[in-house]
Amino acid sequence: MADHLTEEEQIESIKRWWKENGTGIVSGVVLALAAYFGWQWWQGKARGDAEAASNVYQSFVEAVSANEGKPDNKQLTTAQSLARELKDDYAKRIYAAQASLRLAALAAEKNDLETAAKELQWVIDNTGDDALKYVATRRLAAVKAARGEEKEALALLSGKVPSEFAALYAETRGDILVQQGDKEAARKAYIEARTQLLPEQASAGQLLALKLESLGGAAEEESAKESKDAEDSQPVEQPAAESEKENDAQ
User: What whole-number distance in Å separates Cα of residue 192 and Cα of residue 39?
Assistant: First the structure.
């Protein structure tokens, strides 16, 4: 009898526990399942979006690369339409920014600087890729300079940038300063660019040297300065007479 009562008490205890906690357990299980399937859905959607964006970008590249990179009006219209689709539907993906950079380059080649500036500004405002943002900013500065907006162009190039962009930014500042007629400041900018070249950017040194030479006397001045620096770094040798005096004193 005691065993029987004990079983009944256990059953009642389980019922009470389930009544108090069952709803929470069920809710927890439901939420866990919802989170799991939600994550699976999000992952699937992200993969689908990436694939769709890649396909649109591939079509864009085919259109914009037609005729050896010189698309006719129909092909350019197609490319522009595909770029709009990338911007509207996949603005944060790298494909949209790359499409805008490509359209900006085409517009600049046709001297359509207004369109080029708009495309580059879109990249700056929308891309999440820092490297592409630095590329777009430098190009926008060059476009603004070409439009006669040198002050705004130089402002875009001010401030610290990663080492891989430092030389390019300094060189572009030099180009703009030459345009303004400030040869001395331009020379300093080119020298700065040359000193900040990374090993993999060494080939750009030749062009910088030519730009310095075009300013007149720059190469000779730099060569003299480098020779002087080298001389200053050498240990100073005492004259023989002085050396002998020191030996006699000892």
Answer: 50
Q: Is the C-alpha dihedral spanning 70, 75, 76, 82 positive or negative?
A: negative
Q: Which of 131, 122, 114, 128 minimizes the C-alpha distance to 83?
A: 122
Say if residue 132's pLDDT is above 60.
yes
- Per-residue burial over 67-86, b if 16 or more Cβ lie within 10 Å, else e, is eeeebeeebbebbbebbebb
Are 215 and 187 a contacting pair, CB within 8 Å?
yes
Q: What percentage of the chain has pLDDT greater than the value 90?
A: 60
Are 115 and 140 contained in the same domain?
yes
> Which residues constitute the domain of residue 90?
48-148
CA–CA distance, 182 with 149 (Å, rounded to integer) = 15
Q: Same domain for 142 and 163?
A: no
What pLDDT score was predicted for residue 69? 84
Residue that is last in its domain, among 99, 127, 148:
148
End position of a domain, from candidates 130, 148, 166: 148
